[in-house]
């Protein structure tokens, strides 16, 4: 009886406004980040215009392939972090988790105990299991001893660097004429074929991009459709309400860390099965930290994270020729990326608060618009 | 110094005697008139109560007086001078201070540090400030030691620290927003003594509340606000709580008392020797034994902090380490998780609805799912059924009169009373056989209170066992079929509510004549 249709129009209003703002907020944050980066360039006496025209030029197919490849990796990292964020867990350890997982997967795939894609599958399972186990340590510590997952995952990052370096020395095969250490190569039949997006050399993207998209879909489905996802979001929003409703927060903490770690375990897989085919001392570092920024930028939403990953990959790729073309260090985009994260966090929070205010007013208005007689006559009913 | 006797007429017209004069205050929000033509005179050296239901406009009015919001219309005079308050800093400068309902203290700092925080210019942060705190504490009987850690203080003492903070900043007019909501009866009395001390020193206190007995006990004048405007200012001497409440609601009032007994012989909930050891010293609960029959309301009375919260949480399975047995309809709950207990037929209305009952930033339909994630209509095969949950939320909205435009509104946007009605509706919708209601009407307006009482009475009539915990003694006596008094984690007395008065119950709660 309260959900009468006339109120519907007044209700959708603030939602629409908030939606527009939500889309506008990251755009505004981007503009602010570009402005601050420009300021840094001006202060350093670098050619601002040329830097931006280089970065914002239309990428060639070859660069586009690189952007998509890099974004695939960053996307998985972002999703891994986002799973933790939805539970109010700050998994800083994605870096250590993907590194350890990639090493183990490379060893498994290199040994080729199973033929063809079965070998791939086994290696992927191993990667997810190792990532989950590595993150699970932090989850168990948090659930049973109350150790902050921020601290424990940072520590586990350092441990993983040392452990992997140590084990790599044992597992590596010596290549004549090279002093880099690498695991055995993944056999041809177990590699994930690349997809071509154009003519010419290096215009291929990782076949893993499909798997990454499926991971995103699974993340969305789990979060929004399943009971487990509901429990996860509820616990993230209010652990006290979660406990009272019968959710076991300890179990959720451990599960969330396990899942986050399992996805983190996949982060290095596109590289392993698409380009490097081996884990070595030069395996791409730092992907876990980029994932934190991307999850924040994408608001933990599967599509938002994808856009964030593409943006970061775009900036990375486009800044590569800066040194050669305009004599500016490509590291300048790190400033842009850092500022984006800061401005985006601020603008999202502002939009959120504004949205809540709008909604409260809309509710008050909708209730005030109800027939006045209803309120006056009924003794039970009182204004909101 | 004025007393509770009616002041001479000349006093109220004499501008010198008026500390705060509000004339024609109006404030609109988009689509809502929060305040409209508010007129209040607060005389110096008096306690002036402002009463009204939730949403009547009290909070907006006080925010205007404290400079948090600017009025659209009207004037504020303080000590005869028209002032413009653009921020709390302006208000403090004008001598107006506010003590909020939710304390704003840093637990890990000392009283001294909390008091000087943000007011370092006044008396420094060292010896001078410490002496000033001691002086204020002495002068107004606040009994505050400057070097205690705030986390070691009880609720009452924290509130006195808040009052001291305001006095330290030189306030001559104190606004107290629902100050008794967090206090137990004795603390309320102590607070009132402090307030009387303040007014005897010539300070003015604006006391916002909807607990009418308290208002009548302490105020010198009472202004009733209804739907954003001042209805009347009355003298407490010639006014009853009922008359005040009727002014607030604008109509006749409901009462909590139940009709004929529906108690049966069939035991639904049987709690035997329930104990909850505490790592430090005295157990939180000790040898609690009781039965609740089908159709019976068992009320638990006690001064807050004597084990009520622990009792509820032990029954809900939210506390580990509980001993003894809890049997609900022949099913032993003792080893079960909170979720399993809920699914065995327990509905739970928690004491703190915002922390334990709701996901404030989620839509109402998701709040409907909360606690029912495993059961239809919320879920099927491990998946959340949004359509079914939404339509069931609409049912609750209609049946429990939740004032909202629809089920997609965020829970945060609803008023406290409507949030509570939603929770009651949700907890009744899993076909429970036991309803645990902890302070079900705390902080809700009179209208929602009456509605919630009706729902509890209906639950009783439908044959549920109801465990009711409340600090509102009228509510306890009115709704319960039997009352147990809890003191220091033990049941110390049993009462039949039919021949029980609040004072008798109150003295049993403090242990007077029991095991003092």
Q: Please give the share of residues in helix of chain A.
A: over 70%
Q: Name the overall outline of chain B.
A: globular
Which stretches of chain B are poorly predicted, pLDDT < 50 over at least 5 residues? Answer: 1-13
| Average residue-wise pLDDT of chain A | 86
Q: Give the number of DSSP strands of chain B.
A: 22
Taking the sheet with the most strands of chain B, its summary is: 6 strands, mixed
Distance between the first and last residues' Cα of chain B: 38 Å
By CATH, the architecture of the largest domain in chain A is named: Orthogonal Bundle
Please supply descriptive tags for the structure shown above.
heterodimer, A: 384 residues, mainly alpha, ABC transporter involved in vitamin B12 uptake, BtuC, two-stranded antiparallel sheet, 16 helices, 73% helix, 1% strand, globular, disordered N terminus, disordered C terminus, B: 516 residues, alpha/beta, Rossmann fold, 3 domains, 6-stranded mixed beta sheet
């Amino acid at each position: 009886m309260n959900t009468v249709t006339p109120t519907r129009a007044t209700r959708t209003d603030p939602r629409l406004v908030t939606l527009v703002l939500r889309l506008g907020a990251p755009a505004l944050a981007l503009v602010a980040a570009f402005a601050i980066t420009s300021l840094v360039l001006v202060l350093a006496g670098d050619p601002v215009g040329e830097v931006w025209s280089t970065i914002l030029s239309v990428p060639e197919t070859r660069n586009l392939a690189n952007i998509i490849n890099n974004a695939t990796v960053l996307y998985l990292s972002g999703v891994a972090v986002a799973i933790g964020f939805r539970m109010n867990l700050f998994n800083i350890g994605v870096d250590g988790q993907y590194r350890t997982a990639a090493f183990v997967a490379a060893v498994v795939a290199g040994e080729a105990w199973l033929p063809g894609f079965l070998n791939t599958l086994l290696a992927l399972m191993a990667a997810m299991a190792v990532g989950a186990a590595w993150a699970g340590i932090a989850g168990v510590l948090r659930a049973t001893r109350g150790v902050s997952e921020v601290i424990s995952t940072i520590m586990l990052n350092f441990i993983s660097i040392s452990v992997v370096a140590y084990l790599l020395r044992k597992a590596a095969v010596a290549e004549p004429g090279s002093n880099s250490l690498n695991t055995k190569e993944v056999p041809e039949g177990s590699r994930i074929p690349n997809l071509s997006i154009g003519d010419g050399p290096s215009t291929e993207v990782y076949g893993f991009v499909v798997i990454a998209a499926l991971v995103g879909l699974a993340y969305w489905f789990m979060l929004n459709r399943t009971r487990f996802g509901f429990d996860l979001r509820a616990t993230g929003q209010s652990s006290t309400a979660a406990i009272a409703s019968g959710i076991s927060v300890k179990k959720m903490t451990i599960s969330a860390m396990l899942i986050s770690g399992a996805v983190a375990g996949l982060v290095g897989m596109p590289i392993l099965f698409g380009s490097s085919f081996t884990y070595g001392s030069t395996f791409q570092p730092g992907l876990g930290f980029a994932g934190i920024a991307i999850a924040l930028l994408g608001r933990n939403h599967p599509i938002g994270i994808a856009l964030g990953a593409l943006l970061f990959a775009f900036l990375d790729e486009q800044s590569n020729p800066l040194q050669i073309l305009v004599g500016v260090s490509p590291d300048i985009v790190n400033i842009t990326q850092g500022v984006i994260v800061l401005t985006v966090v601020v603008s999202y929070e502002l939009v959120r608060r504004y949205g809540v205010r709008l909604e409260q007013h809309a509710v008050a208005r909708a209730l005030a618009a109800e027939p006045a007689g209803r309120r006056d006559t009924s003794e039970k009913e009182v204004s909101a | 110094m004025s007393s509770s006797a009616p002041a001479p007429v000349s006093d109220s017209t004499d501008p010198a005697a008026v500390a705060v004069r509000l004339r024609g205050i109006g404030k609109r929000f988009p689509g809502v008139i929060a305040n409209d033509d508010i007129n209040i005179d607060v005389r110096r050296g008096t306690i002036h109560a402002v009463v009204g239901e939730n949403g009547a406009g009290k909070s907006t009015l006080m925010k205007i007086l404290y400079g948090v919001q600017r009025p659209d219309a009207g004037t504020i005079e303080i000590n005869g001078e028209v002032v413009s308050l653009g921020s709390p800093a302006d208000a403090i400068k004008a001598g107006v201070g506010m003590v909020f309902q939710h304390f704003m203290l840093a637990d890990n700092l000392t009283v001294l540090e909390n008091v000087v925080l943000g007011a370092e210019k006044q008396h420094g942060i060292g010896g001078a400030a410490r002496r000033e705190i001691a002086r204020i504490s002495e002068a107004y009987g606040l009994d505050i030691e400057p070097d205690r850690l705030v986390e070691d203080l009880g609720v009452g003492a924290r509130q006195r620290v808040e009052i001291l903070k305001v006095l330290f900043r030189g306030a001559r007019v104190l606004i107290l927003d629902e100050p008794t909501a967090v206090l137990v009866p004795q603390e309320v009395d102590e607070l009132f003594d402090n307030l009387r001390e303040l007014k005897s020193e010539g300070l003015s206190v604006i006391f916002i509340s909807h607990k009418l007995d308290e208002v009548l006990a302490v105020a010198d004048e009472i202004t009733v606000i209804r739907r954003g405007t001042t209805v009347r200012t009355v003298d407490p001497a010639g006014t009853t709580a009922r008359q005040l409440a009727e002014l607030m609601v604008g109509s006749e009032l409901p009462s909590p008392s139940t009709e004929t007994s529906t108690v049966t012989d069939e035991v639904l909930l049987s709690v035997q020797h329930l104990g909850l050891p505490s790592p430090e010293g005295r157990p939180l609960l000790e040898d609690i034994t009781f039965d609740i029959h089908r159709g019976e309301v068992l009320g638990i009375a006690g001064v807050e902090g004597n084990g009520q919260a622990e009792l509820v949480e032990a029954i809900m399975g939210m506390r580990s380490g509980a001993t003894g047995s809890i049997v609900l309809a022949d099913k032993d709950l003792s080893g079960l998780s909170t979720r399993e207990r809920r699914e065995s037929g327990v509905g739970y209305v928690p004491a703190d609805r915002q922390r334990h009952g709701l996901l404030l930033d989620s839509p109402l339909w998701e709040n409907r799912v909360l606690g029912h994630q495993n059961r239809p209509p919320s879920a099927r095969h491990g998946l959340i059924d949004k359509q079914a949950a939404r339509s069931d939320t609409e049912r609750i909205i209609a049946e429990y009169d939740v004032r909202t435009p629809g089920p997609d509104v965020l829970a945060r946007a609803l008023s406290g009373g409507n949030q509570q009605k939603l929770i009651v509706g949700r907890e009744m919708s899993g076909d429970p056989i036991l309803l645990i209601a902890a302070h079900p009407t705390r902080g809700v307006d009179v209208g929602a209170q009456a509605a919630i009482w009706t729902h509890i009475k209906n639950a009783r009539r439908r044959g549920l066992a109801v465990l009711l915990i409340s600090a509102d003694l009228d509510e306890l006596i009115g709704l319960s079929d039997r009352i147990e008094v809890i003191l220091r984690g033990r049941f110390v007395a049993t009462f039949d509510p039919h021949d029980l008065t609040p004072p008798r119950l109150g003295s049993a709660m403090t242990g007077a004549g029991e095991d003092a």
